[in-house]
Amino acid sequence: MGPRQPARCPFAGPRGAARTPSNQFAVAACTAVANAPGKAYNPLFLYGGVGLGKTHLVHAVGNHALRQNPNCHVVYLSSESFTNDLIHALEQHRMPEFRARYREKCDILLLDDIQFLGNKKQTMEEFFHTFNALHEAGKQIFVTSDKLPTEIEGFEERLRSRFQWGLIADIQPPETETRVAILKKKAATDHIALPDDVALFLGTHIRSNVRELEGCLIRLAAFASLTGAALTIELAQDVLKNILVVRGDKPDVETIIKIVAEAMQVKPQDIKGDRRQQNIARARQVAMFLTRRITGLSYPVIGEKFGGKDHSTVINAEQRIDQLMNEEPDLSKTVQSLFRRLNS
What we know:
Layout: H1 24-35, E1 44-47, H2 54-68, E2 74-78, H3 79-91, H4 95-104, E3 108-112, H5 121-136, E4 140-145, H6 157-163, E5 167-170, H7 176-189, H8 196-205, H9 210-227, H10 233-239, H11 253-263, H12 268-272, H13 278-295, H14 299-305, H15 311-327, H16 329-343
Parallel strand pairs: 1-4, 1-5, 2-3, 3-4
Helix pairs in contact: 1-2, 4-5, 7-8, 7-9, 11-13, 13-15, 14-15, 15-16
C-alpha cells in the first residue's frame, strides 16, 4: 500500500492532546514541528511502547500542517508500507516515480514504526537517500519507533547518526492518575457505570498501555452486563486475573539518590547539584541510570527531579553508564548491586 494522508484525529493538533508528565515533552516537540515543519526539530524521532499514542501524535502533526497549509504535501505511511512500495517499484521498474513521490513531491514525511526497517538492507539504503534529499531541501521528517535508534537491531550506523541531527523524544506509560482519568472518560463515552474504587483498582494494576487499559474495562463491563453481576473490585480480580499485576512499591527518586550517594560516598545534594568533579558526576550518572531503569519516568521528569537538569543530560547519563558497564567490571558490579538493593 502506498502513502496516504494522515487519518483525521479527534483533536485539532498536538496542542489538543492531554499533557501529562509521561507525554508532555513529546507533545511539546510535536507541537513545535507542526507549527514550523522543517525548522523546529528535523528530524523528530519519537519512541515508546505499544499503545502509548505515538501514531495519534503523528496523525495530529500531519493534520495540523494540512490545516495550516492545504497545499502542503504530507506523506504518512508505516515502514512496512514503505518497504512494500519499494518492492513494487522495483518489480515494475518504476523507481524514478518512487523516488519522486518521497523526495520531490513530499513536504512532510511521517513514517511509523521505523524499527521494522532493521535488517532490510535495500530499504534502508533507499530510506537513507530519501532522508538526505528531504533534509537538504528543508522538508520535515518525523518517524516513530518502539525503541531508541541505538537499540534497533540491524539498523545501519549512518541512519542512527542521522537521527541525532534532530530531536529524540520519548513517550512513557501514563501515571496512575492519568490512567484513572482515561478509564473514567472511556466509561462515560461507552455509558459504563464505573465505580470510583474499581477505576482506581484498574488504574493501579494495569500499567502497560492505554489500549490494554481500555480493553480490560470493556471486557469487565461486558462480563458484568452479560452475567448481571455488579461491577466490583472482586469481579475485576476474577475476570482479569490473568492480566492484572501485583503492584510492588518502587523506591522514589529521592530514595534512589540517597542510596546511590551513600554507596558511592558523595552527598545527595551534590548528585542533584552541578559540580563536575569526577566521582560526583559518575554518581549522578548512576543515579539517573537507576532512576530510569527502576521508575520508568520520562527523561524530562527525571531531569527535573535531579535539580532541573535538561532531558539530554539524563539520556547521556543512561547511555554512558550502559557503555561503561561493559567496560568496567567494578562499576558494573556496583550498579547491579544497587539495582538489587533498590528492588528488594
